[in-house]
Design a protein that fits this description.
By secondary structure, the protein is α+β, with helices and mostly antiparallel strands. It has eight helices and 32 strands. The strands form eight sheets. A five-stranded mixed sheet has the order 1-8-7-3-4, with no helix packed on it. α4 packs parallel to α7.
Length: about 550
């Protein structure tokens, strides 16, 4: 009996730990030098307790990094590790900035209970920090004669390494930074700020600069494509013409001017009608041309062949393109894809009563997996898709297109919907925060005002009409000048837009390279496809 009592007293402090009153995800991954935010959920009885974040596998040997009762006057934006408690949502969030690879390991979300007979309520999570390098934009373009700057990002460990900029397929073209972290000649300038990024600037682009390039730091490298477009042509000016001397014009008298007043009124009315009609027609044509500016049919077919590929940013983190044969321009492509999932926008917001849609992306391997939408900290709230890939109730609708993405739509937002949520596919998940703002107040309408009756207008006689003849002449001249100017401007814009509505020459050449490839699914396992972005004209590579 005494032994049973001893065991009971020993296990009593650890009972809260088994009840799992503090929860978070088991594992998080982030690139070296990046930031990570982790939500930790707790039960209502812990709303007023102190929360903390520490590094270690056990509470007794855990290094404290942040506490909610630490009230030092330090700007949270300047802290490497910051903590924020939201007792309304029953969650506290921890943000870690500028993470290093050696900071990978186990961490603890904890609620400090205190006392001899009660242990702190805690949960564990693992953080993985990986290293590498990338480009802010891997597809750059600019007009001939303009300047363009490429920004290449690298991990902390490559801060002191030599940085290089090389034309793909020609390693003799490599340009390296010196001991001061810079390089410059008449056409290219390289600057390394030694804080995680270096820039390459083409001072004056030439058509021959169109190519694939490599950003390199140490043994790491990433590919960047530069596309130079032809310089826009200017409208030639019409040379001035000389005319023979004309006889002097007859002086305009009051009598001759008055005799033409009816004609001037007609000209004013006709000019106004013609001006409005021409502006309306050109505006409609301009809108229709812009609306019909679609990606070419061949690119659409190529996109359809790869519609099953994952669209997650992390899946293409280690993708690379190699041009091995400089003479034949043969293209050999190595594409390394890692599985995962993400959200198009991890921070969503909407007004109370409105609708909002969240798009969650997943990898190919999770196409047939069950998709879930869960409120973080309450797994009983999970909503799952059925065999038809959909779910719907009075407040939420889930649709899975089985091609790499599923959407979650809140039909009518309520204030209580503000929370952290999880998109889930198989064993993969990603966090999304939904913020509901109060419904905007409407501005009261101003009541209509009544005005006293105005005196009747005076009848227009020949004398009053004649007195306004100079004003009518000014209106005619101004209307004509404005009409001609607007027509000329719209015609030039219409011509330029029509001229620029074509696939860039380099994309056509690269499409021709792949025109002989087999279209079976297995033949495209290690292939790459270029997609044109309709809005920004960027080229996306898969």
């Amino acid at each position: 009996m005494s032994q049973l009592s001893t065991i009971t007293l020993f296990l009593l402090p650890w009972i809260p730990a088994f009840l799992c009153k503090v929860t978070t995800e088991e594992e998080f991954a982030v690139l070296e030098g990046g930031s990570l935010t982790i939500p930790c959920h707790y039960e209502p009885q812990y709303a007023s307790y102190v929360k903390y974040w520490c590094q270690g596998r056990t509470r007794e040997f855990c290094t404290s990094l942040a506490r909610t009762d630490d009230h030092h006057l330090v700007d949270p934006a300047e802290k490497k590790v910051s903590i924020f408690d939201d007792p309304v949502q029953l969650v506290f969030t921890v943000t870690m900035k500028d993470l290093k690879e050696d900071e990978s390991g186990w961490y603890i979300c904890g609620v400090e209970i205190g006392g001899v007979w009660k242990a702190d309520d805690t949960t564990f999570t693992k953080v993985k920090v990986i290293h590498g390098m990338s480009a802010v934009n891997s597809m750059m373009s600019g007009a001939e004669g303009s300047a363009v700057t490429i920004e290449c990002l690298y991990s902390e460990r490559y801060r002191e390494s030599e940085k290089k900029w090389c034309r793909s397929g020609d390693w003799r073209s490599c340009l390296s930074t010196g001991s001061d972290g810079s390089y410059e000649d008449s056409s290219v300038a390289i600057r390394d700020d030694r804080t995680g990024a270096f820039t390459v600037t083409f001072k004056k682009l030439q058509m021959k600069d169109t190519a694939w390039y490599w950003c390199s730091a140490g043994q790491q490298k990433t590919a960047v494509h530069v596309l130079v477009t032809p310089q826009p042509t200017t409208v030639p000016t019409v040379p001035s013409q000389s005319f023979p001397d004309l006889p002097p014009a007859k002086p305009i008298t009051r009598e001759t001017w008055s005799s033409h007043s009816p004609m001037l009124a007609s000209v004013v009315v006709c000019s106004s009608v013609i001006f409005l009609a021409v502006v309306a027609i050109l505006a409609i044509k301009f809108w229709r041309l812009h609306k019909s500016d679609r990606v070419p049919r061949d690119v659409e077919e190529m996109r359809a062949k790869f519609s099953g590929c994952s669209r997650e940013a992390g899946d293409f983190q280690n993708a690379a393109v190699l041009f091995l044969n400089k003479d034949s321009q043969d293209v050999h492509i190595v594409l390394m894809i890692s599985a995962g999932m993400s959200a198009v926008n991890s921070m969503m917001s909407g007004a109370e009563g409105s609708a909002v849609t969240i798009e969650c992306l997943y990898s190919e391997r999770y196409r047939e997996s069950e998709k879930k939408w869960c409120r973080s900290g309450d797994w009983r709230s999970c909503l799952s898709t059925g065999s038809d890939g959909s779910y719907e109730d009075s407040s939420v609708a889930i649709r899975d297109d089985r091609t790499g993405a599923f959407t979650v739509t809140f039909k009518k937002l309520q204030m209580k919907d503000t929370a952290w949520y999880w998109c889930s596919a198989g064993q993969q998940k990603t966090a999304v925060h939904v913020l509901v703002t109060p419904q905007p107040t409407t501005v009261p309408t101003v009541p209509s005002q009544s005005f006293p009756d105005l005196p009747p207008a005076k009848p227009i006689t020949r004398e009053t009409w004649s007195s306004h003849s100079p004003m009518l002449a000014s209106v005619v001249v101004c209307s004509s000048v404005i009409f001609l100017a607007v027509v000329a401007i719209l015609a030039i814009k219409f011509w330029r837009l029509h001229k620029s509505d074509r696939v860039p020459r380099d994309v056509e050449e690269m499409r021709a390279k792949f025109s002989g490839c087999s279209r079976e699914a297995g033949d495209f396992q290690n292939a790459a496809v270029l997609f044109l972005n309709k809005d920004s004209q960027d080229v996306h590579m898969y």
